C-alpha cells in the first residue's frame, strides 16, 4: 500500500509521518494517512509515506534496520531531517495488554504504550533511533491503533495525526496534546525521564 505525499507550506519545520513500517500494517495505516489534508498544515513541510507490505520484524530488533524496509525508514529520516517524526503503527487486539502492561519494562525493555482513547496508543519511537539519529528536542512518536479499526478509533487516530501536522514546534505540539490528553502527557513525561534520562515526553 505505497503512498507518498508532501505538503509544503514554505518556511517552518519538517514533519515526517511513516506508516506500514512492518508486516501488513500499511493496509490499515493508509486509511489514516490519506486523510491528512493540505489545510492541516499551516507552515513548514509534512512528508507522508506509507510503506509496502514487508516481513514483520519489530522496530525494537536491531535486525529491523538491516531489512529493506528498515533501510527505507532510515533513508527517509536522513533525507528529510524531521523535527517531528511519527511512526503510524497498528496492532492486533490480542497484543493490547502486551503493549500497555507495566511488564513491558522487563519483557521488551521499553516503557508501556499509553492509551489516549478508543484503543489508540502513544509512545516514543524505537530507542534504537530515538537516541542515535534524532536530537533530544526532536519529537519522536509511535502512534498505534488496532488494525482494521472501528470508525471511532480511526477518527481519534486521525485527529491526533492532524494535531501533530498542525504543530509548528515541540512546544506547540505538547500544548495541543496537553489540551487533549493531559493525564497521558504527564505519564509520557514520567516514562521518558525514567527510560531515557532527561528527555521530553515524546
Ligand atoms: Zn508496528
Average pLDDT works out at 97
Secondary-structure content class = alpha/beta
Strand tally: 7
Strand order of the largest sheet: 1-3-2-4-7-6-5
Radius of gyration, in Å, reads 15 Å
**How can the largest sheet be summarized?**
7 strands, mixed
The unreliable regions are none
Ends apart, CA distance between termini: 27 Å
Q: Order of helices and strands, N to C?
A: EEHEHEHHEEHEHHH
SSE layout:
Blueprint: E1 3-9, E2 14-19, H1 26-33, E3 44-50, H2 68-80, E4 84-91, H3 96-100, H4 104-107, E5 114-117, E6 120-124, H5 127-130, E7 139-146, H6 151-166, H7 170-180, H8 182-196
Parallel strand pairs: 2-3, 2-4, 4-7
Antiparallel strand pairs: 1-3, 5-6, 6-7
Helix pairs in contact: 7-8
This protein binds zinc ion.
Zinc ion (ZN) binds at residues 22, 25, 89.
In short:
By secondary structure, the protein is α/β, with parallel strands linked by helices. It has 8 helices and 7 strands, in the order ββαβαβααββαβααα. It has one domain (3-196).
Describe the structure.
By secondary structure, this protein is α/β, with parallel strands linked by helices. It has one domain. It has eight helices and seven strands; from the N terminus they run E-E-H-E-H-E-H-H-E-E-H-E-H-H-H. The chain has a seven-stranded mixed beta sheet, with helices on both faces. Strand 2, helix 1 and strand 3 form a beta-alpha-beta unit. Helix 7 crosses helix 8. The longest helix has 16 residues. It is globular and about 45 Å long. The two termini are 27 Å apart. The relative contact order is 0.16. The model has no long low-confidence stretch (mean pLDDT 97). The site of zinc ion has 3 residues, from loops. Zinc ion binds next to loops.
Amino acid at each position: 500500500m505505497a503512498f507518498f505525499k508532501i505538503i509544503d507550506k514554505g518556511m517552518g519545520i519538517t514533519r515526517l509521518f511513516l506508516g506500514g513500517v512492518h508486516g501488513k500494517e500499511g493496509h490499515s495505516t493508509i486509511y489514516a494517512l490519506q486523510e491528512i489534508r493540505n489545510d492541516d498544515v499551516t507552515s513548514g513541510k509534512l512528508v507522508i509515506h506509507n510503506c509496502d507490505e514487508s516481513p514483520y520484524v519489530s522496530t525494537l530488533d536491531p535486525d529491523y534496520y538491516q531489512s529493506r524496509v528498515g533501510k527505507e525508514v532510515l533513508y527517509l529520516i536522513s533525507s528529510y531531517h524531521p523535527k517531528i517524526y511519527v511512526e503510524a503503527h497498528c496492532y492486533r487486539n490480542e497484543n493490547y495488554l502486551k503493549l500497555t502492561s507495566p511488564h513491558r519494562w522487563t519483557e521488551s525493555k521499553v516503557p508501556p504504550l499509553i492509551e489516549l482513547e478508543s484503543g489508540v496508543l502513544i509512545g516514543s519511537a524505537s530507542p534504537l533511533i530515538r537516541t542515535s539519529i534524532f536530537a533530544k528536542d526532536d519529537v519522536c512518536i509511535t502512534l498505534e491503533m488496532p488494525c482494521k479499526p472501528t470508525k471511532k478509533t480511526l477518527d481519534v487516530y486521525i485527529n491526533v495525526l492532524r494535531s501533530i501536522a498542525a504543530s509548528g514546534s515541540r512546544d506547540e505540539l505538547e500544548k495541543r496534546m496537553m489540551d487533549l490528553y493531559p493525564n497521558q502527557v504527564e505519564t509520557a513525561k514520567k516514562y521518558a525521564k525514567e527510560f531515557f534520562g532527561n528527555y521530553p515526553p515524546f
